[in-house]
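Still learning. Any example?
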Amino acid sequence: MSEPSGTRYAITGRAVTAAVLGLLMATLAWLTGNAWFLLLSGAFAGALVVGVFTRGRLDGLAVEVTHPPRVAVGTALHTVLTVTNKGRRVSSEATFSLYTAGIAELVASVGRLRPGEHVAVPVTRLATGRAVADRTLVHLLSRPGLGLTGTTRPLHVPDHVTVHPRLHDMRDLPVGSKVGDGTDASVVTGQGSEVLDYALAIVQGTRADVR
């Protein structure tokens, strides 16, 4: 199971945009005296207050990763991502980003879970390079309501996997064949072979200059 870690909250760009628009509407209402601008300013302010105080519930979520212990580079690692709500409240919809050494990054989404409920998501990950990993870093992200705030929670999940080089079948080496004069056809004459020919001629006494 995953190791517990802290939950962080942050204001998104939508919240900043809503605040700017609300301020703009208030300014226009003050300059023109138009009630519609004042109404729009109040609507933006109300949405901003509700959105900022609405936070994602990720504290009770636990993550488990199951897959074969070994995989070759360039092949697929079939993984089962199990998410369990161990909290006392219904969890928020969340996006999971998985980071493992030697394995391609994975992003998956899980809906709301009631207390004690779990879901198993089968996914496929690609092995990208040689590595030996003992854990997976999981980033949980939730943007509830209007998406004006973001809730993030990093988890360190125990995960043992070894990514090894792909094994290739070795073809049988070609066996040299004999030709009519008894020489090996697989031997190719190259630079420096004339020295060997001269030594062989001396032994056999076939060269005129050594008789």
